[in-house]
């Protein structure tokens, strides 16, 4: 290790599905951030930690900033805004294919109030013609001043190393906040609940809204080292409960099998996963329930 170790915190902001989690996963190399074709899977802050011999970057995968529709939405925006004021560098990620939209204007308005270096990351360049890229860059330059504009493909890896170098060039001398092998500081409970949530959203396609929550009731370690996990999937309507359980429990079984595999891969131990579905009306608008499900205020 060299004698001047550098470190810093980097927030990734951007509309849902621009590729924030994909980028995190490519850099960290582990399935920590949750990926989904659907928007808003990532609700809490998930940190991924990149460490090499002379630097450490702590990534914060913020919830998408967008106009809140209900209390949970408010919570998300507040968390994201707080995050922006705590970090050293902000990566504002956009989707090259979609281009500029109202969602970005909402984010830019917030970024203008933040006194941190903002990098515009144009992701999914594998999907667009270079001409379109140039137009896009000109368009975004008009909106605000960026420290640098970096086009990448998080999926294919193009220019991701360059982006890492750029971030590292911006780090100041600092401590190694996390041990080298630590890739997230989130309680395992959170990651486990997100795995389960992800499976429900994927398998039920459009039928189940993002309003579902997953609560980990218990994690017991058995004598042989395997884990017994009990979790409750909370929905708002009885019809949703029916969909998640499926014909003779087939859907819930599939959710359980897939989530269990991810959890086993994450924790490196055998898992017995027990899932329950519970109906609880309107939990999104009740603050007390937000705390109950692990949201910090
Ligand atoms: P997030 O909501 O910003 O975290 O976005 P995700 O990382 O979940 O990505 C959303 C979708 O975009 C997924 O289907 C990804 O596979 C896809 N995606 C992410 N990055 C790229 C990229 O560089 N190129 C292409 N073609 N697809 C990408
Ligand atoms: Mg995400
Ligand atoms: K997503």
From TrEMBL:
MF annotations from Gene Ontology: GTP binding; GTPase activity; ribosomal small subunit binding; small ribosomal subunit rRNA binding
Compartments reported by the entry: Cytoplasm; Cell membrane
Region span, G1: 14-21
Domain named Era-type G: residues: 6-173
Membrane topology of the entry: Peripheral membrane protein
Region annotation (G5) ranges: 152-154
Region (G3) location: 61-64
Primary site of residence: cytoplasm
Residues binding GTP, per UniProt: 14-21, 61-65, 123-126
Biological-process GO terms, alphabetical: ribosomal small subunit assembly
KH type-2 domain residues: 204-281
Keywords, comma-separated and alphabetical: Cell membrane, Cytoplasm, GTP-binding, Membrane, Nucleotide-binding, Ribosome biogenesis, RNA-binding, rRNA-binding
Region G4, residue ranges: 123-126
G2 as annotated region, ranges: 40-44
UniProt GO cellular component terms: cytosol; plasma membrane
Function of the protein: An essential GTPase that binds both GDP and GTP, with rapid nucleotide exchange. Plays a role in 16S rRNA processing and 30S ribosomal subunit biogenesis and possibly also in cell cycle regulation and energy metabolism.
Subunit-level organization: Monomer.
Membership in a protein family: Belongs to the TRAFAC class TrmE-Era-EngA-EngB-Septin-like GTPase superfamily. Era GTPase family.
Listed name of the protein: GTPase Era
Species the sequence originates in: Salimicrobium jeotgali
